[in-house]
Amino acid sequence: MASGGNHLLAALPAEEMRRLREHLELVALARRATLYESGGRLQYAYFPTSGIVSLLHVTSDGSAAEVAVVGNEGCTGVCAMLSGSGGTLRATVRAAGYAYRIKASHLQAEFQRCGRLQRIVLRYAGSLIAQLAQSAACNRRHSVDQQLCRWLLGAVDRIASNELATTQEAIASLLGVRREGITEAASGLQKAGLIRYSRGRIAILARAKLEARACECYKLVRGETDRLVRDVYGVRL
Known about the structure:
Number of strands: 10
Helix content: 40-55%
Distance between the termini: 24 Å
Number of helices: 10
Largest sheet: 4 strands, antiparallel
Order of helices and strands: HHEEEEEHEEHHHEHHEEHH
Number of domains: 2
CATH architecture of the largest domain: Sandwich
Oligomer: single chain
CATH topology of the largest domain: Jelly Rolls
């Protein structure tokens, strides 16, 4: 079994990968599937090879907002694994794809060997923290229009297409804003020729202009992810 497109797994030395290989299972990630719940016991970690997983903060009334995203640069369950508890985030598949799944206990055992996996996971945790911090600032400081541009760009960065299968209602839920705000922002982007949307599909038509319209959060988070992939995983983008 090869690492199959997950940068974190691809960066592991042969001996560490050999120990993990027998425990890795390639699984399909169905859109909207929940991989684990907030507060629940972490049973599996997932290393996406394609698709997107949203990490959501869930409030006491059951509402949730996206605070970070995992693609083929990383894995889910890092925060729970490091804390030794179930964690406070829900992991939900935003865009369908595939991932290598492993029991949390097997991953934890390799992590505790203090080899390269541990160093890589800790560095990756730093990039997740950067996402969490930027999400908090973005939600408070930037307009819905800017947040939508950031969100769209972050999504297409992690899939091999400029077209997304999503709805305005789903985006509003993930960003924690009213649907009317997303509808108005999307309408403005479409009139400006930056996107085209129909029911359940959004296509990016003018990426450079969309980047210019997005808040600085997009470039900051993208820069951190690029450094992680290039400097730590040894992959040139």
